[in-house]
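Milestone 3.1: sequence recovery, worked example.
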């Protein structure tokens, strides 16, 4: 990958850890970050990544603040975007002047952001990605990576499924961060990750507990499974193809909503530690608004477009909106509200 210039825009837990892997492999990588304290910490002390085996790596990185983007001269060949879904459009506009005709923008994000990116830079410069990684960031300049490189699973693909030289460059770059494959139907692949995210994100955040704690709380797994089934039904209604992700094979994909349950099981078994806190909860911990639009909010909006409903997802979404308005505090006590929402959804009428 000689002379390939890379930017990682948004260097939170996932973006920073994968960016550091690329830097350590000798690639030309520039971090672009909006959290001032994080920028200064990385400039002063480098980026420290604590790995699951108890070891740590400190990497010197080239990092710029968002306000310095206008000072950048030249263009990037690959721009990895790892910001919150609600920041995707303006951040893509921010980096658009830094692209040349064959540059690509890769969304290292949960949620269905590929259409936003394509709308701004064009489908030919858009590559989607699915991430099987878990990491936390509680302090600037420090990432706690909870899945090893060997256990990290990534897939990427162009919108039309074509293989291109830039896609191959993306594969080579991300291959330093984990196992990687190419999807010929990246929209469906991203939907599979959405099916896995839907039941984990809001319930455990509402309870203010790690994911495994939420899943093992009496009465909560049926709530999570109901959310999964509603999301699966939404995907089927939209014509999404069920494809293997997170290391699964075609033989692991049943022709039923059991696949959505299986995907959650994979997240719990392979991508979660006892202290894993989901992204939504990490945002609330930091006083930030979370990506409600990317998870249950997305399913609810799509069902509304289809003229139907996703009652359990909608009830959990409304509880989460109350948290963001300051009307409800994240607490284990909220499990009762979610269990009641499931009960209410099954009542006649």
């Amino acid at each position: 990958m000689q002379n390939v210039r890379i930017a990682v825009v948004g260097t939170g837990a996932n973006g920073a850890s994968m960016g550091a892997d690329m830097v350590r492999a000798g690639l030309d990588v520039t971090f672009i970050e909006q959290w001032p304290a994080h920028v200064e910490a990385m400039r002063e002390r480098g980026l420290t990544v604590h790995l699951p085996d108890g070891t740590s790596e400190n990497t010197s990185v080239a990092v710029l603040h968002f306000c310095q983007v206008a000072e950048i001269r030249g263009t990037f060949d690959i721009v990895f975007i790892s910001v919150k879904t609600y920041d995707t459009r303006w951040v893509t506009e921010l980096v658009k002047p830094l692209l040349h005709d064959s540059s690509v923008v890769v969304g290292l994000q949960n949620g269905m952001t590929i259409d936003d990116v394509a709308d701004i830079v064009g489908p030919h410069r858009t590559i989607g990605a699915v991430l099987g990684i878990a990491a936390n960031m509680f302090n600037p300049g420090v990432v706690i990576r909870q899945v090893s490189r060997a256990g990290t699973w990534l897939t990427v693909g162009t919108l039309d499924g074509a293989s291109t030289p830039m896609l191959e460059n993306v594969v080579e770059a991300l291959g330093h961060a984990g196992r990687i494959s190419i999807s010929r139907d990246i929209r469906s692949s991203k939907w599979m990750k959405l099916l896995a995210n839907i039941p984990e994100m809001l319930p455990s955040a509402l309870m203010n507990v790690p994911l495994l704690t939420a899943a093992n709380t009496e009465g909560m797994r049926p709530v999570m499974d109901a959310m999964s089934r509603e999301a699966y039904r939404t995907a089927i209604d939209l014509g999404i193809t069920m494809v293997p992700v997170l290391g699964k094979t075609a033989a692991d994909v049943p022709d039923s909503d059991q696949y959505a349950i299986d995907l959650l099981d994979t997240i719990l078994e392979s991508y979660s530690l006892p202290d894993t806190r989901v992204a939504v909860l990490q945002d609330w911990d930091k006083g930030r608004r979370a990506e409600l639009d990317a998870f249950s909010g997305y399913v609810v909006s799509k069902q509304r477009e289809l003229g139907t409903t996703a009652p359990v997802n909608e009830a959990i979404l409304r509880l989460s909106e109350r948290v963001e308005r300051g009307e409800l505090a994240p607490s284990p006590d909220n499990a009762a509200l979610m269990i009641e929402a499931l009960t209410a959804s099954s009542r006649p009428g």
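The first strand starts at residue 5 and ends at 9. The chain has two domains: 5-184, 188-345.
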